[in-house]
Design a protein that fits this description.
The protein has 362 residues and is an alpha+beta fold. The chain folds into four domains: 3-138, N Utilization Substance Protein A, Chain:P, domain 4; 150-206, OB fold (Dihydrolipoamide Acetyltransferase, E2P) (Beta Barrel), CATH 2.40.50.140; 210-282, GMP Synthetase, Chain A, domain 3; 285-362, GMP Synthetase, Chain A, domain 3. 36% of the residues lie in helices and 27% in strands. It contains twelve helices and 15 strands. It has helices at 3-17, 21-39, 86-92, 111-139, 210-220, 222-225, 255-260, 265-273, 288-295, 320-327, 332-341, 350-355, and strands at 46-50, 57-66, 83-85, 101-105, 146-154, 158-162, 167-171, 186-195, 202-206, 230-237, 241-247, 278-283, 303-308, 313-318, 344-349. A five-stranded antiparallel sheet has the order 7-6-5-8-9, covered by helices on one side. Strands 1, 2, 3 and 4 form a four-stranded mixed sheet that branches. Helix 2 crosses helix 4 (111-139). It is elongated and about 105 Å long. The N and C termini lie far apart (91 Å).
């Protein structure tokens, strides 16, 4: 690589990769100085300069101007290999002061070979750094967002999703139970983690995260997207059942109806995306007792008693017909309601409540 080719190569990566031109030259000068010391048995007092216009490389050794020697025994002697006294320096140039340097060109005749090899390595390194930084800028703020990618590869534990300029990892345990992931197909994924601290970009994806369902609602329900309907919380047992709490501060908007859509078309698209997962849309209420009762649907006629507001604990009393519904199969309904409301929910029958001294009229 001659000087002209080097300049063209630098200008090309500056343009295509958006790298600062001086950053490339500074890195090159540092790398060439190291290469010179390694290949030509140089002393430490050498430096490299690259002409930014022509690409010409020159190596200089230098002596640092130091104060004249004195009779003070504590003052170190002048190192003649790297230093020159002020008196001797001013014999060469009267304007020199302590701390200045005297440079002498020592460019080896065959240094072009070393320079070409080093230039190639530095340019490759800077291209990688620029691409990594660019990818980090593109994906750094994608955590907790919904992404669309193509299923590219598969191993024992993971799917690798092509997101364009980078691949994301979708662990198989983060796939919805029972769903079939096909190679080459586009897929929606939730970005649960982005980490650029290592050598490459690490993008962790999920389809079981509650945030995945939340983003689907924002995507499919225009009223949520524009803020007319607000999404309070999501509780999810991926592949089986989820509960989504919504509300609206506008009296003329039915938040549950907006999520279901005409003939159920909106919620149907979401259910299809989550592989037939059952979704309960619950109306949020500022009164925790009302919200807890709503969250335990399809159970009805529930009596909610807030036993400790600070610890967010409550007792829910259900009649015989609604007790099993409130708890749900394997306790699923109660667990999801607890996650949705952030309350510890203890469900009792009327008889159990009576034994605890809780009495009320139906």
């Amino acid at each position: 690589m001659n000087s002209e080719e080097f300049i063209k190569a630098v200008d090309l990566i500056v343009k295509e990769k958006g790298i600062d031109r001086n950053v490339v030259f500074d890195a090159m000068e540092l790398a060439l100085a190291t290469a010179y010391k390694k290949n030509f048995d140089s002393l430490t007092n050498s430096k490299v300069f690259i002409d930014r216009n022509t690409g010409e490389v020159k190596v200089y050794s230098y002596l640092t101007v130091v104060p004249d020697e004195s009779d003070d025994p504590e003052q170190d002697d002048i190192d003649l290999d790297t230093e020159i006294s002020l008196t001797e320096a001013r014999k060469i140039n009267k304007t020199l002061n302590v701390g200045d340097t005297i440079d002498t060109e020592v460019t080896p005749k065959d240094f072009g070979r070393v320079a070409a090899s080093t230039a190639k390595q530095v340019i490759i390194q800077k291209i990688r750094e620029a691409e990594r930084n660019s990818i980090m800028e593109e994906f750094g703020d994608k955590q907790d967002e919904l992404l669309v990618g193509t299923v590219a590869l598969e191993d024992v534990d993971n799917y690798f999703i092509d997101l364009g300029r980078s691949n994301g990892i979708l662990p198989k345990k983060e796939c919805i139970p029972g769903e079939k992931i096909e190679m080459g197909k586009q897929i929606k994924v939730y970005c649960s983690k982005v980490d650029g601290s290592g050598k490459g970009m690490f993008i962790l994806l999920s389809r079981t995260h509650y945030g995945f369902l939340k983003r689907l609602f924002e995507l499919e329900i225009p009223e949520i997207n524009d803020g007319s309907v607000l999404l309070y919380s999501v509780a999810r047992d991926a592949g089986s059942r989820s509960k989504v709490a919504v509300y609206s501060e506008k009296a003329n908007i039915d938040p549950i109806g907006a999520c279901i859509g005409e003939k159920g078309n909106r919620i149907a698209r979401i259910i299809e995306e989550v592989h037939g997962e059952k979704i309960d849309i619950v109306k949020y209420d500022k009164d925790p007792a009302v919200f807890i009762a709503n969250s335990l649907q399809p159970a009805k006629n529930l009596h909610v008693i807030i036993t400790d507001p600070k610890k967010q604990e409550c007792i829910v009393v259900a009649d015989h017909d609604n007790f099993s519904l409130a708890i749900g199969k394997k306790g699923q309904n109660a667990k999801l309601a607890s996650k949705l409301t952030h309350y510890k929910i203890d469900i009792k029958t009327i008889e159990q409540a009576s034994e605890m001294g809780i009495n009320f009229k139906d």
